[in-house]
Amino acid sequence: MSHDHHHHQTAYDFSKVNKAFSIGIALNLFIVVAQVAVGLYIHSLSLLSDAGHNFADVASLILSFFAFKIIKVKSTEKYTYGYKKTSILVAFANALILLFTVIFIVYEAFLRLFNPVEIPGLTVAIIGFIAMILNGVSAYLFHADKEKDLNVKGAFLHLAADALVSAGIVLGGIIIYFTHLYWIDAVLSILIAIFILVSTWSLLTDSLALVLEGVPKNINIETIKAKALSIPGIKDIHHIHIWAISTTENAMTAHITLENNMNAQEEQNIKKTLKHELMHLQIHHITLETEREAHRCEDEVC
Fold first, then answer.
1. What's the CATH number where 127 sits?
2. How far is CA 87 from CA 75, 78, 91, in A?
3. Are residues 164 and 102 in the same domain?
4. Are residues 155 and 176 in the same domain?
5. Domain shared by 117 and 237, yes or no
6. From the centroid of its chain, how far is CA 265?
7. Do 38 and 61 form a contact (C-beta atoms < 8 A)?
8. Which residues contact 118 (CB under 8 A, 6 or more apart)?
9. In the structure, what pLDDT confidence band is assigned to residue 300 with cuts at 50, 70 and 90?
10. Full residue range of the structural domain in which residue 140 is found
11. Fewer CB within 10 Å, N- or C-terminus of the chain?
């Protein structure tokens, strides 16, 4: 049996991401304070709803920032993979936070829809415009790395959604200013909730799959089988198990069946070749058990 740890993912620039999280947290805290202060003063539910959304994003960014810090903690005898799983749990928590935010916004919006309050549309538009610019800047900081890690993708989606929602608030504020249709404020809040739900759904399902030890979305077992069988000497690969140990690292165990007349050195060379190929398929931690055609293992415990 062979177990191997590849760490090619260390080339990922965590310092750059940490800087992005720090700036994103600071900008979003400013947005939250401004929206809450103005929203309470002018009684705008759309601003308060967006403030709640932005505050949820601040919490998400802080949790993700914490996950990137703790993921670097070295493994111990009790936690042999360290605390890498934290990044997956944080991604799932981020999605849940946003879902609860949606429920709250919809509830308050329906109450306000039947009891509209007079609000200054121009003030709503100005605050929305400031939030749109700051969220756009924050989202841009994560854009380049959004496909490299689930938490970075989650941060990008949250902030990009915030920028678009803020653009909607700007438009709504302008409409209110010219038409005095104050129920639009509640409608905007409901639209914000729907937008949050749609943009968060993939993050929720992806992170839930990883929490339940599902095969990561970017991994295809059939591709792995084909790659293994293309290596001379490997006759079969089975009992394959693949799971994520963090949002950037995947692990795999499998049995490979080799030709009967293969010697120990040839076996080691085949393992090395297969592990190298699997590394390019985003498998970083690999455990392989070998067997011969004449003594093929029908059970995982042989």
1. 1.20.1510.10
2. 15, 18, 6
3. yes
4. yes
5. no
6. 42
7. no
8. 43, 180, 182
9. low
10. 2-211
11. N
- Is the model's pLDDT at 37 over the cut of 60? yes
Say if residue 286 is in the same domain as residue 161: no
Closest CA to 6 of 300, 289, 274: 274
Q: Is 261 helix (H, G, I), strand (E, B) or coil?
A: coil
Please tell me whether the overall predicted TM-score, pTM, comes out greater than 0.70 for this model: no
Is the pLDDT score of 147 beyond 80? no
Amino acid identity of 232?
A: P
Contact 189, 212 (CB under 8 A): no
Q: Looking up tokens 């293969």, which residue turns up?
A: 262
- The pLDDT tens digits of the residues spanning 43-97 come to 888 888 788 778 877 877 887 777 777 777 777 788 877 777 887 888 788 788 8
CA distance 195 to 290: 50
- Determine the Cα–Cα distance for residues 28 and 1; give it in Å rounded to an integer: 50
Do the strands 250-258 and 234-244 form a parallel or antiparallel pair, or are they unpaired? antiparallel
Question: What is the number of domains present in the chain?
Answer: 2
